[in-house]
UniProtKB/TrEMBL annotation:
Protein's cellular compartments: Cytoplasm, Cytoskeleton, Microtubule organizing center, Centrosome, Centriole
Keywords recorded for this protein, A-Z: Cell cycle, Coiled coil, Cytoplasm, Cytoskeleton, Repeat
GO cellular component, one term: photoreceptor connecting cilium
Any one biological process term the GO annotation gives: eye photoreceptor cell development
Function, in words: Essential for the assembly of the distal half of centrioles, required for centriole elongation. Acts as a negative regulator of centriole elongation.
This protein's encoding gene: Poc5
Record-given protein name: Centrosomal protein POC5
PANTHER family xrefs: CENTROSOMAL PROTEIN POC5
Source organism of this protein record: Dromas ardeola
Main subcellular location: cytoplasm
Length: 216
């Protein structure tokens, strides 16, 4: 957890720790409020016991007045009963105080455990969110790089295909040019042949005309 925390930015760690301290302080304030309520209940119970003790003291005084009129045996029995009652009340008061202190200690220990657990949970959630954000960012970079490499491969493949197509079309063009030159050459040869044939025909007509004129 400490290693993960060192990866986070300093400001992020400060904000997280500040929020967690505030949350912990709110838990402590809530616990103090509960402690105050328990103390008030305890004070009310102590006041009740004090009232009962005052009533018992008043009863004791009444008994003392009435005991003075009775024999020593009755006085001894009443005194012992009152002492036992006082001891019983004192024991009950001490037990109540001990029980309240024990409950308060257990509540405080439980509150501290809950606060620590919530603190660790919140911190782990923050760290997990930060780690996940970093992982997603790295994943996006990796995907973008893969897409870029794929696009470059496609561009190279298209370039090769177009170059091959251009070479093929260039060869076809050269063949077409050669064919055109051949056709031009054949045309010129044909025209020369036609001219010669025409000239031979003209010469033959001239000779025939001359022969006819000479015969006449």
């Amino acid at each position: 957890l400490a290693n993960c925390t060192t990866v986070l930015p300093l400001t992020f760690q400060t904000n997280v720790l500040t929020e967690l301290r505030k949350w912990k302080l709110s838990l402590i304030e809530h616990h103090k409020l509960q402690m105050r309520q328990e103390k008030e209940k305890h004070a009310a119970h102590v006041r009740q016991l004090s009232n009962e003790m005052e009533n018992l003291k008043e009863l004791l005084r009444t008994y003392e007045v009435s005991i003075g009129r009775k024999d020593e045996v009755v006085i001894t029995n009443l005194t012992q009963a009152l002492e036992r009652q006082k001891e019983r009340l004192e024991l009950m008061r001490n037990f109540t105080l001990w029980r309240i202190q024990h409950v308060q200690a257990k509540q405080e220990e439980y509150a501290n455990r809950v606060a620590d657990r919530q603190f660790r949970t919140a911190l782990m959630k923050k760290v997990w969110a930060a780690w996940r954000a970093l992982s997603e960012e790295k994943w996006k970079e990796k995907v973008a790089k893969a897409c870029q490499l794929r696009a470059e491969d496609v561009c190279v493949q298209l370039t090769n295909d177009y170059e091959a197509k251009i070479a093929e079309l260039t060869a076809t063009l050269e063949q077409t040019k050669a064919e055109i030159l051949r056709l031009h050459s054949e045309r010129e040869h044909y025209e020369d042949t036609m001219k010669k044939a025409f000239m031979r025909g003209v010469c033959a007509l001239n000779l025939e005309a001359m022969t006819m004129f000479q015969g006449k």
